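ok trying this again, last paste got cut off
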Amino acid sequence: MLPEWTSQQRTALQLMGIPVWQTKSATAPVFYYRLGPLYLQGAVELPVSLPGWINDLSLYFEQRPVAVKAPVQTPGLCFNYTDWLAKPLSTEQKKTLWLQLQNEDREH
């Protein structure tokens, strides 16, 4: 915990040339991965042992996810995987994901 400085202490620190540090709020990091035309984003890094659904995507795109810098704009085909790491995807989530991938393939 940071100390609370009194006005006298702040003045003394300023006279001695010692900066008084202020806390800043930081935004949580976002991790991005590229897998074919698909971008994956999440609040934590992907585990070394990838979940089954990411392994399926890796087989489909014939490559593994690669960490990338945050894109300037969020791409159209971008999935937030944070909630999908702790538990397996539901059938409905899998259908939605594969339908979006099929639509992307048709557009290109």
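PB: full thing came through this time. Helices lie at 7-15, 52-61, 91-107.
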